Amino acid sequence: MKIKSQRDFWSGLMFLVVGVAFAWASVSNYSFGSSARPGPGYFPFGLGVLLGLLGAVLAFKALTIESADGQPIGDIAWKPLAIVVGAIVVFGFALPRLGLAVTLPLLIIITSLAGDEIRWRDLVLSCVILTVGSWAVFIKGLSLVIPVWPTFLGG
What we know:
Distance between the termini: 60 Å
Radius of gyration: 21 Å
Oligomer: single chain
Largest sheet: none
Strand content: under 5%
Number of strands: 0
Number of helices: 5
Mean pLDDT: 90
Helix content: 55-70%
Structural class: mainly alpha
Order of helices and strands: HHHHH
């Protein structure tokens, strides 16, 4: 059997493996419940199954549908990968100390460095919209206990 699209095959296989792992972990670590009263494992199981199905369809498509030049996998973009992973690590360490109002714009600014061009107007707009939206959803809407302001300001 010949792989006709390397990109689709390997991404489909990755989705399939991650989906199956999430579905298995959700059933083995949390109670599943029922449709009338879903438990904590119900939603992650459904998402894992959907992700696995998406991966299976994508991998099947890569094995059956011919693509131009086989769509080879290109080189790994190490710089953007390192910047995004580093930004997530910074976010995890900074959130309890600097609060949501400082940490989220910091995350957005750091991750913007992974791209080739930065549009400052779009960057500022993203910082404002995502910070206000996150505050509205997580703090006001879900009542999560997340610091909004830096601890040294008494927040």
